[in-house]
Design goal:
The chain is mainly alpha-helical. The protein is about 75% helix and about 0% strand. It is built from 5 helices and no strands. The longest helix has about 40 residues, at about 30-70.
């Protein structure tokens, strides 16, 4: 009895691999051997960047808060220090949104932070 070499499992595995490589440029989207390397690399990039995205967004929020603080004539570090002294616990994402969408509330927080740091000095 002849040996079956192109079975359905093998074909399914290769089709799944090429489906992941859809949209890749050149041979990477058509040839199984090349697509396998491309897909492995792209999956490792995706894993890495899911973690880096959190880091990047935090840096963006801090930049926005810092810019809003500079308009209120206080440094970012002084503002965060003042918030911690006054017992206000709010995350940087919410502070960033507040600085953009509700400047009055943000300036009220800045005033609280200034009072807290001024009282200790």
């Amino acid at each position: 009895m002849p040996r079956a070499i192109d079975g359905t499992k093998r074909k399914k595995r290769r089709q799944k691999l090429l489906k992941h490589a859809k949209g890749y440029w050149g041979r990477r989207s058509n040839l199984v051997r090349t697509a396998k390397d491309a897909v492995a690399k792209s999956l490792s990039y995706a894993y890495r960047d899911r973690r880096n995205k959190k880091r990047d967004f935090r840096a963006l929020w801090i930049t926005r808060i810092s810019a809003a603080c500079r308009q209120q004539e206080i440094s970012y570090s002084g503002f965060i220090h003042g918030l911690s002294l006054s017992g206000i616990q709010i995350n940087r994402k919410a502070l960033s949104n507040m600085a953009i969408e509700d400047p009055k509330a943000f300036s009220a927080l800045v005033d609280k932070a200034k009072q807290a740091t001024g009282a200790r000095q």
